[in-house]
């Protein structure tokens, strides 16, 4: 079944004008579609335009040109419906320390004009595993709980799209795994997720498709798998019974990364060398190969290549 677009962005531009410094082009002709039910990653270095993009959807920044539609609503014609269709989990923790999670969610529901009988506060608290802390002061919550409470706040009006802005910036590994689990759960319930991040492993772990932004331009937009397939360089480590004699120019594109007594790590380009040639080269010296481990490279390699170009 063809998934339909839940968010569609055409030629989106944002220019910040500054009399002293001149114009700053934060978004330059951005085109992208997000499909219903996917986890979509928006990656890029700081200042790439990710936050500007989110703020335009949130209604806190006014675009310069272009079209944005969410859930079929046009941002210019139906700004309120667009805002109601999006839940945003901000980067910084901005919670009132003297309210309990339940109270905060009830207040948030009130702001959205949701009638008491239609509120799903308890369901949301359960979803982010805060039902036990429902009535504790927000200031007594741990960092991880506060992050989950921010997520809960974004869910109060049951938006079809949730945007997570750098959700795991500055959090420890365990907490990151926990948040990922929560996000996947939310996605399984049918919520479309847009995730901005500069942690590439996060994008690799979570996102089906990724757009890479640099200086306001999309430099790549593809499935995570295709982006990873674009990496040409492969690394291989060989453990051998004796030290081997091997040089950079023995095969085209071969580079010795490190060479210890009986362990050598080399990199090569997949389209120039196949692994058999490499194994034959090593065996030529009457050497026994005890172990081989390969490293396929990760999104970081794609990212750096795209941003360099």
TrEMBL record:
Q: Does the keyword Transport apply?
A: yes
The reply on keyword ATP-binding is yes
Q: Which organism is it from?
A: Pelagibacter ubique (strain HTCC1062)
Q: Which SMART domains match?
A: AAA
Q: Which UniProt keywords apply?
A: ATP-binding, Nodulation, Nucleotide-binding, Transport
> Per the similarity annotation, which family is this?
Belongs to the ABC transporter superfamily.
> Mind telling me what this protein is named?
YadG-like ABC transporter protein
Q: Which Pfam family would be a valid example here?
A: ABC_tran
Any one GO MF term held by the record is: ATP hydrolysis activity
